[in-house]
Amino acid sequence: MLRCQGCHRPDGSGIPGAVPPFPGVIAGFLATPAGRAFIVRVPGVANAPLSDAEVAQLLGWIVRRFDAANVPGDFVDYTAPEVAALRRQPLLRIADEREAILSELERGR
């Protein structure tokens, strides 16, 4: 709550036009490797003053708390080594990458 709610709000609703919501959205990113990586690579996660293990645990909680109905059946929790590797790959064009992932997900439906 201390790290995320300032932008994503306590209910995960985000800020329209600026910060995407979690409910009904976040678990969808888990359907592709690029989407799964994107969640870790967004600046707020990649630069969070938390350990890799804490980030891995937090992401699993966020996905289940805010979008449990859409969590893929084959979802595997993030691991500390996975988070560590992804945090070293910063996102340079966040909106472009997010839109590309969302387009890929839409085509896959």
Descriptive report:
The protein has 109 residues and is mainly α. It has one domain (26-108). The protein has six helices and no strands. It has helices at residues 5-8, 33-41, 43-46, 52-67, 80-87, 94-108. Helix 4 (52-67) packs across helix 5. The longest helix has 16 residues, at 52-67. The radius of gyration is 13 Å and the shape is globular. The termini are far apart.
Reconstruct the topology from this structure.
Blueprint (H helix, E strand, L loop, with lengths): L4 H4 L24 H9 L1 H4 L5 H16 L12 H8 L6 H15 L1
Short description:
The protein is built from six helices and no strands. It has 109 residues and is mainly alpha-helical. It has one domain.
Features:
single chain, 109 residues, mainly alpha
Query: How many domains is the backbone divided into?
Result: 1
Instruction: Figure out the total of helices.
Output: 6
% residues in beta strands: under 5%
Give the helices and strands as they follow along the chain.
Answer: HHHHHH
Number of strands: 0
Radius of gyration: 13 Å
Decide which structural class fits the backbone.
Answer: mainly alpha
Profile the largest sheet.
Answer: none
Spans of at least 5 consecutive residues whose pLDDT stays below 50 are: none
Q: Percent of residues in helical segments?
A: 40-55%
End-to-end CA span: 32 Å
Give average pLDDT, whole number. 91
The backbone outline, from C-alpha atoms, is globular
